[in-house]
Structure formats: structure tokens, C-alpha cells
């Protein structure tokens, strides 16, 4: 006698006992509003769980906007002057300038300020060419990351390079004295009291996380493209002749 298979209702999954409607909602196959079992706070969480693709797109768009904008500003004189303390004190960039720190402290311009003597010193320091070079690099990273929809492999390279740039920028917290509140009488100075410069630098920790996330996403997209192309059968000679 052959064994009798158990009768399982069509809307119940044999392995879990969950109704298919519940599973489909969890897998995103059915709009949340179509399931009577999902109500209240759970409905809100399920809705929020579907925002991952939108979030990734906004994250990448934010990186591109910031990189293009900040990179473009590197061609402005006030921005070129502003990065002098960062580059001059860093072992990764101090060799690019002609004058050694802390000489620059006597020639720093406030944003929007024009002091001919200071401008002349910045010119002799090679301040603008260094800033222009950084601007080209940063804009280039933004363009690479923006290529994700068409060339995810290039976007992944852009994110990888951005990771390196973030580590260099975060190292300025160690090498730049201006990153910390100076001892001018207030008890709150030095570590961990970040100055305005330091507060700008520490935000690169967020950019670092974004770069790692977009790197993984672009790499997955490129791998998926490769797997898809490998599963497409190449046309035979007979098919081509026909």
C-alpha cells in the first residue's frame, strides 16, 4: 500500500505552516495593504524595510553631489587657502608645498578676505596648484561613482578610491593642530574638543561608511552582470547563418 500524502491547504506552506499570503508579504510579493494580517506598527516596519533600494540610491547620489561640489570648490582661492593647514602638516601632502609649517599661520586669509601680501605668500607656496589637483581627483571620484547604473565596475573602483581618501582625511585629526580647540584660557581645549576644522574632518567617518556600502553594492551589480552574461548561450554558426 502506498503511503497517503497529507492533505495541505493550498494557502499553507508545508515547511513552516505559514500562509502563503504572509510569506508573500514578507518577501515583498504582495502590497502590504492587501494583507489583513499586517496592521499597526508591523505595517510601518514592513513599509520601512522596503526602503533599502531607495536609501542606496540616495546614499550614492549624496556622495556624488558632495564630491562634485567640494571638488569644484577646490578651484576657488578661499578653499585652496583653507586646506593649507591640513595638507602642510600631513606626511601625505606636506612635500607638495614650498614652505614648511607653521609658517602658513601668518598668512591665512579669512573666507572672503583679500590681503595682497597673504595672497602673494600663498602663490609662492604653490597653494592653488595643489588645490586644483585635489579638485580634479575629487571630481573624478564623483564621476566614477555616478557611473553605477551603466558601469558598476567603474563605480566600484571610485568607491574604493574614496575609501582611501577618507582614511587620509581622517588622519588629519592626528596631524593637524588646528583640528582641536587651542588652549587660549578655556578649560575645554585639546582632545576631545574638536574645532570647526576638526568637526568637518570627523564627518568623513560617515563618508567612509558610505563608500564601503556603495563599493559592495556596485561590486554585487557587476558580479550579477557577469553571471547573467555567462548564462546567455552564444549563438551557434548555424544560427548566425540563418
Can you offer a commentary on this structure?
The chain is an all-alpha fold and 242 residues long. The protein has one domain. It contains 11 helices and no strands. It is globular and about 70 Å long.
How are the elements arranged and paired?
Layout: H1 20-26, H2 40-49, H3 52-73, H4 77-82, H5 84-88, H6 116-125, H7 127-146, H8 152-175, H9 196-202, H10 204-230, H11 237-241
Helix pairs in contact: 3-7, 3-10, 7-8, 8-10
The Cα radius of gyration reads: 28 Å
Compute the average pLDDT. Answer: 86
The percent range for strand residues is: under 5%
Broad shape:
globular
The figure for the number of domains is: 1
Sequence stretches where pLDDT stays below 50 over 5 or more residues: 1-21
Annotation field: number of helices? 11
Which tags fit this structure?
single chain, 242 residues, mainly alpha, 11 helices, 59% helix, 0% strand, globular, disordered N terminus
In brief, what are we looking at here?
With 242 residues, the chain is mainly alpha-helical. The chain has one domain (53-230). The protein contains eleven helices and no strands.
